[in-house]
Every structure is written in C-alpha cells, then in structure tokens.
Amino acid sequence: MSQLTDQVKNFKKSLTANTMLGVKRVVSQTKSVDSQSSTPKYGSINNNTRAAFETDSPRKKSKKSTVYSQPANTGIGHHAMSQLYTVIQFLKESDTAQSVVSIISRTKVDIRKNQALWEKLVNNDKIDYDVVNDTFVYKPTYQIRSKEDLLELLIQKREDGGMDYKDLKDSYSKLGDAVEELANEGQILVIRHKDGNPRILFYNEMQYNTPVDDEFRKMWAGIKIPDETDLPKALENAGLKTMEVFEKKVVSEPKLKRSKTRNRKFKITNTHLANIDLSRDYVPNKQ
C-alpha cells in the first residue's frame, strides 16, 4: 500500500514539472514576439509588398513641375493690319453684304473709331463699300453663290481644261458642299489629292461618255502600275522607251573684245623731239 502511495506522489511531481516547462516556453515565445514588434519594420522581408514599404517608410515629397500658363486667345490683335485681316476674313466667309454694325459686333473691331483702318478697308481692291447702304462685301475672283453658279462657270471654262479648286475657294463659303453634290449627281468630274480633297474640277460632258464593258473595266483596274522608280525598267522590258526631253542649248554669242585705248607715256631722251607726238604715225605733208 505504501508503495502505491509513493508512486502516486512521484507521478504528481513529474506532472507538475512538465507543466512549468510548458509555461516557460510560452513566455519565451511571447518575449520573442515582443522583441520583433519593437524592432523597426523599415524594409522588412516579412511584408515586402509595395504597400508595406509605402506605409512603413516616410514618403518623399514629389517635386511639382511648374506649368506656365498660355496667354488667352482674344481673337483679334491690336495692330491695324491684324484687325484688317480679321475683318476681311469675316467678309470672305459671308456670302452677303455686311453692315458696319454687323462687322463690329461679329469681329469686335470698331472700324468707325479707327480712321486708318477704315481707309484701308474702303480702298482695298477685294472689298466693295456701298456708300448708300453703308455695307461692305468681299469681291472674289469669281461670283459664285450656289452650286448652279459653279456649274455654269465650269461650263464656260470647259475649253480651258478644268479649274483649280484653290482658285475658287474664296468665292463661296459652301464651295466644298457644292462640289460634292455636283460630283454625286455626275455633272462634274473631280481630280482629288491623296487625302480626298478636291484638286481640279471639270465639267462632265455627257455626250462624250462612252459605255465601257464591265470585263474591260476589271482588266483596267487589275493592271498594276509599277512604282515611279521601277517604271523605266518595266517599260524597257515591255519594249517601250521613256520620253526623252531634249534641252535646247542656248548658244551665247561671243562677246567682242574691245581694244582699250591707252595713253602711252614716252620718256623723251632727245630734247629736239619734245614738241613731237611720237604716238601718232608720221604722215608727210603734201605740198
């Protein structure tokens, strides 16, 4: 019985000893955690995300680049020529005569108060001033006010081989729309730039329009034109020659050399010849 009691006591002692060891280990772990928490976390490997570095480390103030503001666009200048240009551009974009009040209100240029500007505007070759109605109107090279006027002008100029679009641009503010309408109706032919803008306008004479077979159209469209640099070689392979341009050589007439008359000075050694001009030929006197 006493042995059993001794065994129970020993078991309780061993159990108590194991419990104390476990508590000490826990305390040691908490101390290590506390020591880690007390150390600074700048650039720590435990959390190497961008947010961790941004929150842990102090942010550097970014230098703001200086932005210089642009001057406000007032629309017109204070110089007389710039104001004159503004008024003329307004009249050019207007297809009808404009009164002085309309010019002042639309361009913000008071042409009545500026006498020099008024004189330049009245005496301008491209501006027509109506004294009775007190109005100004732009005078274009061609009087075009509708697409019918444009068509009539192209009919009159059909023998000249077409008209340049830029020569008509200041004639009518809606010239581009008129060209597209007439081209869609088939009344004019348009040669365009690479960007699609009109270049040359022709009147389409319907009587010369010959119907072409669709097969021929396909053959024509299927022909590939060589590049400009490869075109001479392609013509040579086809047995054709490029057009040769002969430059006429201008033969300049030889300039005649004029003999310069020089006054020669002679050193006179014989005093008895002092009054005789030795530069002239001797001609004996005939009696």
From TrEMBL:
Domain of life of the organism encoding this protein:
Eukaryota
Region: Disordered, residue numbers: 29-74
Q: Which GO terms describe its molecular function?
A: DNA binding; TFIIH-class transcription factor complex binding
What does the UniProt keyword field contain? Answer: DNA-binding, Nucleus, Transcription, Transcription regulation
GO CC annotations on file? transcription factor TFIIE complex
- Please verify whether the record's keywords include NAD: no
| PROSITE patterns documented for this protein | TFIIE_BETA_C (PS51351)
Keyword Transcription regulation part of the UniProt annotation: yes
Which InterPro entries does the entry link to? TFA2_E-tether (IPR054600), TFA2_Winged_2 (IPR040501), TFIIE-bsu (IPR016656), TFIIE_bsu_DNA-bd (IPR003166)
One Gene Ontology term from the biological process aspect of the record: transcription initiation at RNA polymerase II promoter
Where does this protein reside within or beyond the cell?
A: Nucleus
Where are the compositionally biased (Polar residues) regions?
29-50
What family is this? Belongs to the TFIIE beta subunit family.
Q: Which PANTHER family match?
A: TRANSCRIPTION INITIATION FACTOR IIE SUBUNIT BETA, TRANSCRIPTION INITIATION FACTOR IIE, BETA SUBUNIT
Q: How does it assemble?
A: Tetramer of two alpha and two beta chains.
The entry's function note states: Recruits TFIIH to the initiation complex and stimulates the RNA polymerase II C-terminal domain kinase and DNA-dependent ATPase activities of TFIIH. Both TFIIH and TFIIE are required for promoter clearance by RNA polymerase.
Q: What is this protein called?
A: Transcription initiation factor IIE subunit beta
Lineage of the organism: Eukaryota, Fungi, Fungi incertae sedis, Mucoromycota, Mucoromycotina
